[in-house]
Specification:
15 strands; five-stranded antiparallel β-sheet; OB fold (Dihydrolipoamide Acetyltransferase, E2P); about 230 residues; 2 domains; about 30% strand; Rossmann fold; alpha/beta
């Protein structure tokens, strides 16, 4: 679980981090002391705790910018004022916590927020969001993804989409049905018809490279996929 804390009061950041770690020590937590620093980091988060009254870019402007790139992040405002509660609805805030923070209340909201985030993550595993084109593709329709320099081709059952992007970024959005068989290829294991020592054949006859050093790992991953609920579409 990736969590961001955005507050210009370092003591509040530490308090929130402490509350989270008491309940969920395995979470990855990043702290930012301004909205601008948070946005410039360009990282993806499952859950964001965001102060409203900050110097420079305030929390509402930060939230609006966040929603353009991370529409499904669970957002919780942490503020010392009640006056922004209705504006919080405009950016789909999950909750609105008032300072000073009360630990019991915080833990209750955190537990519900984590469940909401898990639901969002399950939903994202079924779709691939292409931010540069404001496009959403059903993952089950993707045959494979191919890197071509600064561009990436997404080959689906019906058409191919060409976008500017990085394979590593796309890989983080994909479900366990996909395997990185080569630095330039990600394949949907549901459409594998055949594989050899150095290539994988997919539905429709498309062939992609399989790095020799990954052959053994790929076979294990593919067998695990088939034995644990994976369904071949061929």
């Amino acid at each position: 679980m990736r969590i961001a804390i955005v507050d210009d009061e370092k003591i509040i950041c530490e308090q929130i981090k402490d509350f989270i770690q008491k309940e969920h020590g395995d979470c990855q937590i990043d702290s930012y002391f301004s909205g601008q620093a948070f946005l410039e980091a360009g990282k993806q988060f499952d859950l964001v705790f965001l102060d409203i009254q900050m110097e420079g870019m305030d929390g509402m402007d930060t939230a609006r910018a966040l929603r353009k790139t991370q529409p499904e992040a669970v957002l919780i405002f942490v503020t010392g004022s009640k006056e922004y509660v209705f504006e919080a609805f405009d950016v789909s805030a999950f909750h609105y916590l008032l300072k000073p923070l009360e630990e019991t209340k915080f833990k209750e909201v955190l537990a519900r927020a984590l469940l909401e985030s898990q639901r969002h993550r399950a939903g994202r595993q079924e779709r691939l969001f292409i931010r540069t084109k404001n496009l959403t593709i059903d993952q089950k329709d993707i045959l494979y993804i191919e890197s071509r320099g600064k561009k990436v081709d997404i080959h689906t059952l019906k058409e191919t989409f060409s976008i500017y992007g990085a394979m590593n970024e796309l890989e983080t959005q994909l479900s366990k049905s996909f395997y990185r068989c080569h630095r330039g290829y990600l394949v949907n294991m549901a459409y594998i018809t055949e594989y050899g020592a150095d290539s994988i054949t997919l539905t429709g006859g498309a062939r992609v490279y399989l790095t020799k050093k990954k052959h053994g790992e790929f076979v294990k991953a593919y067998m695990w996929y088939l034995q644990n609920g994976g369904v071949s579409c061929v």
